[in-house]
């Protein structure tokens, strides 16, 4: 009986050690593998464009464009938009007088693809691109207090 009690104590201790080792291995595995997704290609800015979003402030503040969504995720190449729809220079589009929602609806700029056939129409799913003032502030930090301007 004493031998059985001693054996049980040893088995309990061994089981506890095994469980501790399994737990430790699981934690290490999570730490090692959580920083990388398997099967996910590394983002290359030379291939897919800038990683940081473009945040347009004209004609309205808070319109966001991610190159990754269009290149890496959707499989479009840079030359599908540059230099036909958009110049390569940062900020060039929003300085043009015709960079408006009305021109998008007519197939210019983003509207060339966002026509309801190739991609969702530019007059639908507004919040996909328009993040609003709160979204803008999250991306850029709070803006100075003042009157917001811009026509849709």
Give the gist of this structure.
The protein has 152 residues and is mostly helical.
Fill in the keyword field for this structure.
152 residues; mainly alpha; Cytochrome C3; 2 domains; 5 helices
| pLDDT < 50 runs, ≥5 residues | none
Strand line-up in the sheet with most strands: 1-2
Q: Could you tell me how far the N terminus lies from the C terminus, measured between alpha carbons in angstroms?
A: 86 Å
CATH fold label of the largest domain: Cytochrome C3
Mean pLDDT: 81
Give the tally of structural domains: 2
Write the layout of secondary structure elements.
Layout: H1 2-34, H2 45-48, E1 54-56, E2 63-65, H3 67-73, H4 101-105, H5 132-140
Antiparallel strand pairs: 1-2
Structure description:
The protein is mostly helical. The protein folds into 2 domains: 1-40; 45-140, Cytochrome C3 (Alpha-Beta Complex), CATH 3.90.10. The chain has helices at 2-34, 45-48, 67-73, 101-105, 132-140, and strands at 54-56, 63-65. It has a two-stranded antiparallel sheet with strand order 1-2. The longest helix is centred in the first third of the chain and has 33 residues, at 2-34. The radius of gyration is 27 Å and the shape is elongated. The termini are far apart. The mean pLDDT is 81.
């Amino acid at each position: 009986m004493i031998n059985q009690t001693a054996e049980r104590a040893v088995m309990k201790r061994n089981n506890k050690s095994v469980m501790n080792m399994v737990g430790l291995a699981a934690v290490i595995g999570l730490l090692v593998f959580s920083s990388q997704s398997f099967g996910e290609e590394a983002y290359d800015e030379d291939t897919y464009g800038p990683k940081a979003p473009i945040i347009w402030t004209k004609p309205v503040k808070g319109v966001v464009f991610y190159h990754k969504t269009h290149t890496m995720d959707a499989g479009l190449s840079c030359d599908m938009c540059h230099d036909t729809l958009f110049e390569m220079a940062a900020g060039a589009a929003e300085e043009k007088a015709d960079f408006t929602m009305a021109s998008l609806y007519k197939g210019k700029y983003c509207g060339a693809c966002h026509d309801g056939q190739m991609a969702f129409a530019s007059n639908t799913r507004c919040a996909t691109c328009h993040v609003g003032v709160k979204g803008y502030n999250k991306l850029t930090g709070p803006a100075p207090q003042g009157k917001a301007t811009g026509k849709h």
